[in-house]
Amino acid sequence: MSQPVHIFSTRENVTLAEKISQSYGMPLGKMSFFDFSDGEYQPCLEESVRGSRVFIIGSTFPPADNLMEMLLMIDAAKRASADKITAVIPYFGLARQDRKDKPRVPIGAKLVANLLSAAGATRIMTMDLHADQIQGFFEIPVDHLFASNIFVNYVRSLNLKNLTIASPDMGGAKRARTYASHLNADVVICYKERKKANNIDYMILIGDVKDRNVILIDDMIDTAGTLTKAADIIMESGALSVRAMATHPILSGGAYERINNSRLEEVIVTDSIPLKNNLVDKIKVLSCAPLFGEIMNLVHNRESISKKFLI
């Protein structure tokens, strides 16, 4: 007899979770939340999960309630005698805090890994971590998926001539080179310096983009300052067009306005984080639901998922 499966969602990710569960081939499990007047809340799984495999879907973007909901739901499933509990986290929050880059700061990504394991998660499924080494923060299996499985086919559909892949910083050079190898494209890199987060002091372009169609590749867009500045430099260097492609649309501060007023022709993202503003025509959303639905099926059926690691 095959093990029963239940799929649940945190409140902020219901739209994506419904798409994932549909792709998987079953409806979302029934949930309820009791809200206290002071803001405290209590999730309840409204169906038996005893002996089951449970998938709990929820990106852990701010506010902290999204992470807390995930932890409480994992704990609820553990205490309800679920056999296996997979935290499906399309966007893994606090991933930028993956090391001590100065004295007296936390390693937030490691703390989140500890919390998820302590709550009772037996497996983690996520996409395009800000730093690959975060997988090593866990003592449980981590399925690290790549949005390249979604993006590469879209780029091919554009039929762009003289294609060049650009990294907006040195840290993304490996990602850009790998995309370029699949798309038979050249690579350029933007070198930037900044004294504090979200503020760029200096940026130059390394490589030639004259008469090229350029696509900037990154794992996330936060304030969009880096991408829009890189787009300006690329166009001023003679490019025919410039687009941006990033997995996680954090889009905080003035990001929407910057993108709308930028020289970017198009910004392609996934739905790992719901957009706060759907009125910016330049932003195109590609769903990651089919990818997660397929991997969840493979994991449940104990089949290999290595074929899905394109990048």
Properties at a glance:
311 residues; Rossmann fold; 7-stranded mixed sheet; single chain; alpha/beta; 14 strands; 2 domains; 5-stranded parallel sheet; globular
Q: Could you please describe the fold and organization of this structure?
A:
This protein has two domains: 5-145, Rossmann fold, CATH 3.40.50.2020; 148-287, Rossmann fold, CATH 3.40.50. It is 29% helix and 25% strand. It is built from eight helices and 14 strands. Strands 10-9-8-11-12-13-14 form a seven-stranded mixed beta sheet. Helix 2 (65-79) packs parallel to helix 3. It holds the Pfam family Pribosyltran_N.
Give a nutshell description of this structure.
The protein is an alpha/beta fold and 311 residues long. The protein contains 8 helices and 14 strands. The chain folds into 2 domains: 141 residues, Rossmann fold (3-Layer(aba) Sandwich); 140 residues, Rossmann fold.
Structural class: alpha/beta
Strand content: 25-35%
Radius of gyration: 20 Å
* Proportion in helices: 25-40%
Number of domain modules = 2
Count every beta strand, where a strand is a DSSP E run of 2 or more residues: 14
Spell the H/E element sequence: EHEEEHEHEEHEHEEEHEHEEH
CATH architecture of the largest domain: 3-Layer(aba) Sandwich
For the biggest β-sheet, the strand order reads 10-9-8-11-12-13-14
Please state the average pLDDT score: 94
| CATH fold-level topology of the largest domain | Rossmann fold
- The general outline is globular
CATH class designation of the largest domain: Alpha Beta
Structure annotation, total helices: 8
Biggest sheet features: 7 strands, mixed
Q: Point out poorly predicted stretches.
A: none
Distance between the termini: 35 Å
